[in-house]
Amino acid sequence: MSTLTGALLRLPVLAPGVLVTAYALGVLSSLYLGARRVPRWWAIAPSALAAGGLTGALVLWVVEKPVDLFGTPLGWSTRAWVVGCFAVLGLASANLRRTTLRRKTVSLASAVTVVLTTVLGVNAIYGLNPTVGAVLGLTADRPVTLPAVAPAVLAAPAASPVPLWRSWQAPPGMPSRGTIGTAVIPGVVSRFVARPAGIYLPPAALTANPPALPLVVLLMGQPGNPDPHAIAATLDRYAAVNHGLAPIVIVADQLGSPTVDTLCLDTARYGHVATYVNTDVVAWARTHLNIRTDRASWTIAGYSNGGQCAISFAASHPDLWGNVIDISGEEYPGAEHAARTLAEIFAGNQGAYDAHKPVALLSSHHYSDTTAIFTVSTDDTSYIPGVTRVADAARAAGMHVTLHEIPNGGHGAGALDGGLDTGFRVLYPRLGLRPA
Questions:
Q1: Cβ pair 159, 296 in contact under 8 A
Q2: Residues whose CB is less than 8 angstroms from the CB of residue 337 and which lie 6 or more positions away in sequence, other chains included
């Protein structure tokens, strides 16, 4: 990747200055398209706006209902942006008839401006993609440089009786912030083809003699990217007041493609995703990272689609995961398109489908030493019932459960940031990173 390309992909798109400029250009473009001095334009323009708006509404209906591209309701603010954009595009099409070449050229440029403004506006609603690269599903992060793994870590030591907050002394010159990058984690056993994982190394991991640290494997939503920026920002804040201590994080890719819901299962249709995360990612972490190996130091975390994956993996692999953070998680695999999942993946066998749901997985075990944190936003009404049911099932199965509602976090960046903050506030003492 060239330096220029990388710089373009790292351009921020959520900064207030960027958004205000984009909105202003969008308004000016719309005004230009609406201002023409031709006969009967007062009748043509409203008709063009209406036709475009109706087309946008139809596209939304197809995307949300029959296709179910996003797996969750889009929200009225998002729909308003899309319908408004199509309405202006209808107006732009009217500007292409019986006009000069100059008018056609400026009208097309205005239409492109309105589309880009809409993309930025919708992205700002969710707040999950902070850069141009993230919006496009491309990463500008460089491959991370990993410190050599200490021989004592490779020998899989038992859990230290002394918590890190007591035994660790931050050395002079330790970085004030962690570092992020990417790493390719091959599907050696699963054969699943994943996108490069995001990696976060906290300040303590960047010292000359780093301690073995807890491990977090985070799974993001669908559509989404294995982007470590959000969790890095949260853990940098925690590390700043805990002598540089924070978990090492792998933001693994459970999707392969942003538009595919793999269900986090091993299936012929989508690949062996469960094996990829719980075998391939785990094996890579053991050999490439300075991490503690006791299960109490290992956390599987996820947001939205990834939240369902996280609690499913914690339930089915209690030998690996001593902790789980489920942020606004779906209730079960394919919850937003259950009928299609039942038909395509389970050949109509409802019993087989039910057996893979977290509530069923939790009911078959007793978890005496697993900490589980569930979060959901107060205004995310379509997710609250499912999150509550799964949290209740985890509590009934013996997990030490925290269920917390994020005030008005929606189902975007507010939910993710609030969930991460809540999760690590609970887990830091458990992980030995600060006193209880």
A1: yes
A2: 68, 71, 261
SS3 at position 141? coil
Q: What are the pLDDT digits (tens) for 247-299?
A: 999 999 999 998 889 999 999 999 999 999 999 999 999 999 999 999 999 99
Residues 285 and 164 grouped into a single domain: yes
Report which of 176, 75, 127, 121 is spatially closest to residue 417, judged by C-alpha positions: 127
Q: Torsion angle, CA of 354/278/224/339, rounded to 10 degrees? A: -10
The reply to whether 353 and 234 lie within a common domain is yes
Residue at which a domain ends, from 98, 126, 154: 126
The single residue listed with the structure tokens 């942020």 is 327
Cα(347)–Cα(340) distance, rounded to whole angstroms? 10
Query: What is the predicted pLDDT for the residue at 138?
Result: 75
- Full residue range of the structural domain in which residue 361 is found: 141-430
120-170 pLDDT, tens digit each: 999 888 888 888 888 887 776 788 888 878 665 555 444 556 899 999 999
Residues 6+ apart with CB under 8 A from 271: 187, 190, 191, 192, 193, 256, 262
Together in a domain, 73 and 187:
no
Determine contact, residues 351/381, Cβ cutoff 8 Å.
no
Judge whether 134 lies within some domain: no
Q: Quick one: tokens of 104?
A: 């056609």
Query: Rounded to whole angstroms, how far apart are CA atoms 91 and 75?
Result: 25
Q: Are residues 300 and 336 in the same domain?
A: yes
Q: Which amino acid is at 182?
A: T
Of 126, 157, 187, which residue is a domain's last?
126
Stated pTM of the model: 0.87
How many separate domains does the chain show? 2
Query: Is residue 381 domain-resident?
Result: yes
